[in-house]
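Weekly structure sync - notes
Attendees: PM, LS, DV (DV joined late)
Agenda: review two folding runs queued last week.

Item 1: First target. Sequence and structure tokens pasted below for the record.
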Amino acid sequence: MELRRQTRYKIQVPVSFEWEGESGVKKLETGVTRNISVNGLHAVGPVAPPVGSRIRFTVSFPSLGYKPVGPSWPGNGLVIHQEPCNGEKSGFGVKATFDGQEA
């Protein structure tokens, strides 16, 4: 049974994300999205933030050709699940609010 309220768009674009580790040290990683909706995203990276972590992220879209750099979509979120993808990567889901979006 599908419980999602919003459409998820399968798109693979770079995402950078940061969170505070157990020792209070900021962690910064990069990965690739698997899908995005207005309420969140699923991403894959070399390290996934622990479930329950509050993260800051930026999704980066490719250039449309008339500008050297594509648009970006920053936001904040809560990691709600984590899953192993293969030996080198981990997947995680984020309940998110994108900057400029009403909470």
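Item 2: Second target, run right after the first with the same settings.
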Amino acid sequence: MSFKKFATIALAVSATLSSFSAHALHSYTELSKVKGTEKQLILRNNVIGAIKRGHTYKVDVNNKDLVEYYKTHFYSMKLVTGESKYRILDDPQFYKGQQDFAGQTCAVLFRYGNELTESSTAGFGASSNSNDQEQTPLYATGSQYYKDPLETEWPRGKKRENAKNLYKFFLYPGKKFDKTSIFFGLHQSGVVSRKHHSNDLVLTMNHQSYYINYKDQQKPLVDGDPALYSFLIVPSLGTIVKQANEQAAYDLCHDNVEAIVPHR
């Protein structure tokens, strides 16, 4: 065998091996392995059951099944303005904000999976003051989202100018809950259904709502300013990291996120 041919084969083998040398992606805790109180385990089982039965719905104000579920799920919501909770639950921006949040979260996961530099905010293409690599979101102690929440606000920019309501969406910092808690921000579904794969990701999303008062100040809209939670499901981490870039990862989850409806 000639040296040239040997070198060509060696390079091919090296390239093949290098494709397997990329860092292994983290496996978040499957829902079936979530632990907690009796109430938390009931909630976990309801989420699992909803995924199995296909009770997941596109996040859209025009999706009547989802809107009606939210109106039941947030039955005790009281607004400081004295208005009906429908000011939030019938607001298209409430749903667009959830789509944006799913997209932003997946942009973070894309950066982690492709060993890119962390960003100062969740969104794709955001400016960064760091040269640090994006660590396993929420899980790694070196992750920026281990100590701080992964959060976004909606509307942003010019879209905020005429907005009736403002929303903050977030995953709690990784250190706040044990990795096996239902309230930890990211889980692997572990459920096979006609709509979803077992390795799809489940986000325990929290949200708070605000309004702008006559002094142009941002004030809590819901009495007590609670962080209300719901569950979203997005494509798997493996699928997210295979996208062409952060924008594509954002679009994948923005366009495909569904809300999990445990009770229907």
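Discussion on item 2: The chain is about 35% helix and 15% strand.
Action: LS to circulate a short write-up before next sync.
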